[in-house]
Design goal:
Helix 2 (20-31) runs antiparallel to helix 4 and helix 5 crosses helix 9. Helix content is 41%, strand content 19%. It is an alpha+beta fold. It contains twelve helices and ten strands. It has helices at 3-16, 20-31, 36-43, 49-89, 107-121, 135-138, 150-153, 171-181, 223-238, 291-296, 313-321, 334-337; strands at residues 125-126, 132-134, 158-160, 164-166, 187-196, 208-218, 244-251, 254-263, 280-289, 305-312. It has a seven-stranded mixed beta sheet, sandwiched between helices.
């Protein structure tokens, strides 16, 4: 076959090629082992000497023409195929999405974290202690010796005899912290944790509940320091206009002891169902740490003083999120829990 005919056929072939697979077949047809250009090349030796040079040149020209055209077409086809692929894989954002079920933090955990963050910003450490506790730490070192009537109010789960129990308050963590500190000041800790009492479970009672206790020991600590600290936390939780008042109370481990009321965030003190028409809500028990408690934990009450406070986490969360049954905090039925999953619960500040 003549060089011109091969060139013509080759050009037609290359012009009509529409995909990479067909292009590769052309490469084999012309440059493969038995390809048409390859065979032209092997014919050079049969050409008379005087024509060899010219023939060789023409074969080279055809080969070069094929190669450059082939490269151009290959680049173009690859680009086209890529664009097609991208177009076919594009996401149609107008289609409705599949609903993905998302978890949300337990509302009680969320509240505790919020309280922790406020106290940490005031320099408090968050500390933890054992839930299975010794009577010594849960009662005796908090000024509640065996046989004391104050023990009756905390109907305690004893595990072994009269020495090992499920802690009925988080206060033993404070005792442990002071003992560990060996007189080091200041002590600034917050101890959120589970506590246990023999209570029948109902809307407002639970045999297991969360306390958030705090302790500060330093020089010249007074009730007004306590009030300032409580103010910060209740304003953060219930709004900047929340007022605080102290009422005298009685606890073994503090002297004086107080109950802390906040102005009702619902009616702003006018009286409503939430505050039982008193305008006030009790949120916390607190007081100045009893000198005997300091002494037993290795702090000289002549030199150091402190305050302690305890919030019921469920009580705070029930008030803050308008929940009337504390059992929902421990409910695992998603249909009920969902009712309290309000996404980002609004902050009052
Ligand atoms: Zn009210």
């Amino acid at each position: 076959m003549k060089v011109e005919e091969i060139t013509k056929e080759m050009q037609e072939d290359l012009q009509s090629v529409s995909n990479l697979k067909a292009l590769n077949e052309l490469r084999i047809k012309y440059l493969g082992k038995k390809g048409m250009i390859t065979e032209l090349n092997s014919e050079i030796k049969n050409v008379p000497n005087e024509e060899k040079k010219a023939f060789g040149q023409r074969v080279n020209e055809v080969r070069t023409l094929f190669q450059t055209t082939y490269d151009e077409i290959k680049t173009r086809l690859e680009e086209e195929e890529l664009n097609q692929k991208l177009a076919s894989e594009a996401i149609d954002i107008s289609l409705p999405s599949t609903k993905v079920s998302m978890g949300a933090p337990n509302i009680l955990e969320k509240l505790i974290e919020e309280v922790e963050e406020v106290f940490m910003s005031m320099g408090y450490d968050v500390v933890d202690g054992p839930e299975i506790e010794e009577d010594k730490y849960n009662f005796e070192m908090l000024n509640i010796p065996k046989g004391h009537p104050a023990r009756d109010a905390q109907d305690t789960f004893y595990l072994e005899g009269e020495e090992i129990l499920l802690r009925s308050q988080t206060s033993p963590v404070q005792v442990r912290t002071m003992l560990k500190g060996k007189g080091k000041v200041p002590v600034r800790v917050i101890c959120p944790g589970k506590t246990y009492r023999r209570d029948d479970d109902d809307a407002t009672h639970s045999h297991q509940f969360m306390q958030i206790e705090g302790l500060l020991v330093d020089k010249d600590i007074s009730l007004s320091d306590l009030k300032g600290t409580i103010d910060v936390i209740v304003k953060k939780l219930f709004g900047a206009d929340t007022k605080t008042r102290f009422r005298p109370s009685y606890y073994q481990f503090t002297e004086p002891s107080v109950e802390v009321d906040i102005s009702c965030f619902n009616c702003k003190g006018k009286g409503c169902n939430v505050c039982k028409h008193t305008g006030w809500l009790t949120v916390c028990g607190a007081g100045v740490v009893h000198p005997d408690v300091l002494r037993m934990s290795g702090y000289d009450p002549e030199v150091w003083s402190g305050f302690a406070f305890g919030f019921g986490a469920e009580r705070l969360a029930m008030l803050k999120y308008d929940i009337d049954d504390l059992r929902v905090f421990y409910n695992t039925d998603l249909r009920e829990v969902k009712n309290f999953d309000r996404g980002e619960l609004e902050n009052n500040d």
